[in-house]
Amino acid sequence: MCGLRRFLLCYAFYRTLMLRMENVSYVALRQPIVFELEGFEVSRSHGYPLFALVLAIYFLVLLGNVVVMGVIAIDKTLHKPMYVMVCNLAACDLLGGTAVMTQLMVIFLMGEKRIPYNSAYAQAICVHTYGAAVQTILSAMAYDRYVAVCEPLRYHAIMTTAHMVFVILLAWAVAIILIAVLFALNVGTPLCGTYIRHVYCSNRSILNLACVPTPINDIYGLCMTWILSSSSFLIIFFCYGKILSACLMRKSDKGSRSKALQTCASHLVIYLIFEIVSLIIILSNRFPQVPMNIKKFCTILIFIVPPLINPIIYGFVTKELRSELPSHWGMENHTYNDHVLLLEGIKVPQQSTYPAFTLLLITYIFIMVANIGLIALISMERSMHQPMYILFCNLPLNDIVGATGMIPRLLWDILTTAPERYITYIECVIQAFCAHLFATTSHTILMIMAFDRYVAICNPLRYATIMTNKMVIRLSMSAWGVAIVLVGILLGLTIRLSRCRSNIFNPYCDNASLFKLSCESVLINNIYGFIFTVVLFVSSIGSISLTYLKIAIVCLSSKNSSLNSKALTTCSTHLLVYLIVIGFGVTIIILHRFPKYAELGQMCSVLFPVIPTCLNPIIYGLQTKEIKQRIFRVFHRAKVAA
Fold this sequence. Notes:
Distance between the termini: 46 Å
Shape: globular
Largest sheet: 3 strands, mixed
Number of strands: 6
CATH class of the largest domain: Mainly Alpha
Helix content: over 70%
CATH topology of the largest domain: Rhopdopsin 7-helix transmembrane proteins
């Protein structure tokens, strides 16, 4: 304590000496000091959607990390060094996510960018502690994996409870001490400003408001960052080098090599995600031409991506933790129960499990980001509040429903062995409803979009009087309403049946797989399903064919080349999307009629919620001139504002 006081006195003397040498005069701020964050440059009208988005992300971060921590804490079989360290990583993720996302929600919801002095420093300390602790905890986890793989016979003798507690405390202590010294150097630093040019408070953003130069703070911060990053990298590199060497030496023991890969893969993926996000932040700040909002978004990725993905990786990839999750959701003791079904799921070879999971996860993230981005772009740009684009918003919304209803369950099944793919009957019905609603609404939405293009090209002078706001709302409600009613009746006829079976021989739940669980007569279900499919296909193909025939006649009879060019560009994207949807639908129906092509049919049924939902935003984003221009304009506007 005496040494710390002496250090602070010497530091204050050094500051005073520097001021006298530079002959600098200033008027320092006095308490109470209230800072103001710059935040994102968005209008107040966009604050509520952004608040909802951040709230949803924060809820997922809380849910994922708390569930992982709760399962590990409750289950005594998981009271092992590896999982105790996973708990600490989850706690660290909660610290970083809570420190930043709660402040973002206040800014977006209330527009309140002011933050008191003590709260600003508390946020800055939490932010830096999170950044340091993630690296030290990951280093400790790498050491645990090194001992487990390279010294398996001595693992329990080395990683005792006392040694495990020491390693974890050391990881936290190193991070806390480094950050404590970093902020201790700020004591006595006079501040001459209150405007923080950042999304959140950090040590550097506060020091930018100092009245005097801060060379010691800068040197210490740079050295601390370099030493911490280099040390964690070297520790992890050394541990995995030893693990790789041990696996290569055990050529005959394939079981131990496979186990080493499974136990180390999740840890290595998490470390790589953290480093990649950190690299994105560094690179975004090195290019002045990058828009300021993009730079700010990149800086908060480190508090969103790792806390959001880490519990998914450990919950799905780690076999022991994954096998314990269902038992804590009331899924244990799977003797025959009419409320619990066994789903066949997607068939993936064992060696392709992790590549398939990674590819499908990346695809799902792209689907969500691209479709939500298109909806946000159309809602924010007033110039795009036109019937064509408002009706188009229904399509990405439907893609989100279809992808979310099926892909997360497919991801779970990829990492789960066939005997463990249990699903409750209610969950199965909900998934079947989402699957059929997605397929049906894809047709009805494209039908109303075709009607809009017909009116725009064949009756351009009456377009504004026909396609009013009320008409757009009616068309949208009819597209969703017809689909919901038709699918509701379809599944209602199935739910009424009793069940005598529990196996679903399909990658995901649908109406046919559900009524096959019954031993009763399903004649009515087959008749209605056949009529439903025929009416849907005939009406969609007929209406769209008639619409485009009328458009073609108008274009051929008109000698206006600009009109024909506009008709071609506005209709080509819609027609291409429709052909993709109808192509997948017809292929699945045809293959379903030939049992020898059952596996190919299952693959097509899995690709149906993936390919169209992935291609639709690309087609409309790149082929539609107005949307493409608005995307470039948004980035250009952010660049000019920066």
